[in-house]
Amino acid sequence: MPDSEQITLSVEAGIAIVKLANPPVNVLGAAVRQAVAGTLRRLATEPDVRAIVLGAEGRTFCAGADITEFGKQTVAPFLPDLIAAFDVIDKPIVAAIDGAALGGGLELVLGCHARIAGRAARLGLPEVTLGVLPGAGGTQRLPRLIGAVPALHLMTDGKPIPAEAALPLGLVDAVAEGDVLAAATAHARSLIGRPLRRTRDLTDRIGPSADFEAAAASVLAREPHNPAVAACVDMVRAAFDLPFDAALAEERACFLRLLHDDRSKALRYAFFAERQAAHVPGLPAGTAPRPMSRAVVVGAGTMGVGIAMCFANAGIPVTVTDTDDEAVRRGLARAAETYAVSVKRGSLTPEARNARLALLQGRVGMAAAAEADVVIEAVFEEMDIKRAVFAELDRIVRPGAVLATNTSFLNVDQIAAATGRPQDVLGLHFFSPANVMRLLEVVRGQHTAPDVLATAMQLGRTLQKVPVVVGVCRGFVGNRMLAVRSAQVERLLLEGALPEQIDAAITRFGFRMGPCAMGDLAGLDVGWRARRAVGIVAPVSDALCEAGRFGQKTGLGFFRYEAGGRTPHTDPAVAALIAEVSERHSVPRRAISAEEIVERLTFPMINEGARILEERIAARPGDIDVIWLNGYGWPAWRGGPMFHADLVGPARIAARLGEMATMSGDETLRPAALLQAAAAHGGFAGLAGARP
Ligand code: 3H9
């Protein structure tokens, strides 16, 4: 008999089975908490019920607290109180975990007296990725159950672990081979009449405090910016120092404090922005994707092979093609080497490596494309070459196959026009290294058919990417904004900043790498060649290349590198070269503060983001942020450029841009109309809400 719409309840031979039933992912919103609390209260006094099994309907056991409730008024029982109430029930409560048990979902499980997992169970505390800590007793129950050091790692990594890893930790009592509910029911029956093992009372697992302190020091060094990580450390330490109830009160206070931290808000914003990006405006609901069981990648260079590996990793057979045998052989060898490194590091089993390699074929010429459901072109970034490839594909490929270009700058409509089927063509812009980077810009051409777009979005998810739809323009969203930043790097260098000052300012802002070190890594000659092709001058970068300084590959670029090394060292020769360029261009040099550097790099990008929104190249500010967070290293705790704009204040940014335009004479720096509108509406968020 169902107890409410949020849970189901059945009682069989003295065992009550309570299941969460709040699709799609069983979040613990107020109605669910009330239903669980009321039902357990009743079952506690029901004479015919001897034990309780807590399970869930659907693929996900429980995704935790309802994040949309955070920071809002909500109703009792709060999650910590709901779980604390398990401790006053005198009947065994056994969790039956199938699918993901995350955050508050795992904390619910920790409040039970035993835990049985299915093979597909994944258990984790991802709260730190949302800028909070486990706030429903997790910071206290987990160290008592599995030990302080593993608990700290589970909390601060934020990554779920599979059932077979949870078992040796003691996080679950057994992994069921078959029906989890049946196994949990049998276990619950076996506990009837025996003393209950309450997690809060366990004292023998927590481990030595010295081990914990050593682990804490390395965790804090790794994650200096996320306040939730430091809070987890403090709370696990409290598990040693404070009585259980006092520590729980401290955990609650800490959770509420974190909720209001801007870094925490940024991380939660990023979570929802990523999910919203999956909803494509203008794509009719229910548009069915085309079938996708065989792929061909044209071009066996670094990018083509990286893309092919994404397919093989996802279990999709893929053929990589090139014009000659040697190129194909080199490409396949590169894939094999990359997999070998993963096996050596222990992140891939030899069996999985073999399975992936078996899915990856190489062929000379494009004939293999005839069999493909999707073809991705990854040849040289030149319009004529790409158009020739598409014209050829148009002759070979079966009707209805999706044709994608991996261009990072070029006009997808012009490429599509080389075929007689522009409705089947779109851009799939992968980021290097393609088998690692999560971002996928899905470039919707003027004629791209809705089901082709739906196919690309589904494909992106299958390949474990974060797909974001963008429109056609030079560089789409990410590279278009990056070009604006690069132009500012040049200006700053000419006016007095040095590469090490620029990189230091931007890494202090939170990027892992500065633009100059990034340029050295990518190869300065790449941009040099591209600029020369379209007649663009970048005086400092051009001078470096003319001096043979191409970056890491030549040991010299913006920085100096030891033979075979990747650590950038300041080079006085670069300072002299830049000073000479400034003089040649009659630009007086001056000291430039770190604050000015950050503003001059980020504000013009935000302005370009506003133009991108005006032109409908991106549908939402959040889409731009998802792109910068997943493809360009924007620090997650700063939420992305458009979120950052709202924090700084669009009015201040517009005013600074006006000053920059006047000082430099660069009219492109004038604030965009949408930036000014955001200033008037209290930020891009307010503006986006007001738009259709
Ligand atoms: C927490 O628990 C705090 C406690 O310690 C203390 C409390 C006091 N809340 O990802 P999907 C939505 S913090 C609200 O596409 P999948 C999501 O937005 C929480 N909504 O599915 C989407 O909505 P829409 C710690 C949520 O199958 C829909 O559900 N937990 C939540 O690819 C489907 O989601 C986490 O951090 C939520 N907690 O992946 C886990 N979760 O359709 C966060 C999801 O309108 N969740 N939604 O766009 C996940 O990692 C994934 O959703 C999951 C399923 C792996 C579960």
List descriptors.
692 residues, alpha/beta, 2-enoyl-CoA Hydratase, Chain A, domain 1, N-(1-d-carboxylethyl)-l-norvaline Dehydrogenase, domain 2, 3 domains, eight-stranded mixed beta sheet, six-stranded mixed beta sheet, 29 helices, 17 strands, binds (S)-3-Hydroxyhexanoyl-CoA
Could you explain how this protein is built, in words?
With 692 residues, this protein is α/β, with parallel strands linked by helices. 49% of the residues lie in helices and 11% in strands. It folds into three domains: 7-260, 2-enoyl-CoA Hydratase, Chain A, domain 1 (Alpha-Beta Complex), CATH 3.90.226.10; 295-470, 3-Layer(aba) Sandwich (Rossmann fold); 497-584, N-(1-d-carboxylethyl)-l-norvaline Dehydrogenase, domain 2, CATH 1.10.1040.50. The protein has 29 helices and 17 strands. The strands form three sheets. The protein has an eight-stranded mixed sheet, with helices on both faces. Strands 1-2-3-4-6-9 form a six-stranded mixed sheet, sandwiched between helices. It has a three-stranded mixed sheet with strand order 5-7-8. Helix 22 packs across helix 23, helix 24 packs across helix 27 and helix 28 packs across helix 29. It is globular, with a radius of gyration of 28 Å.
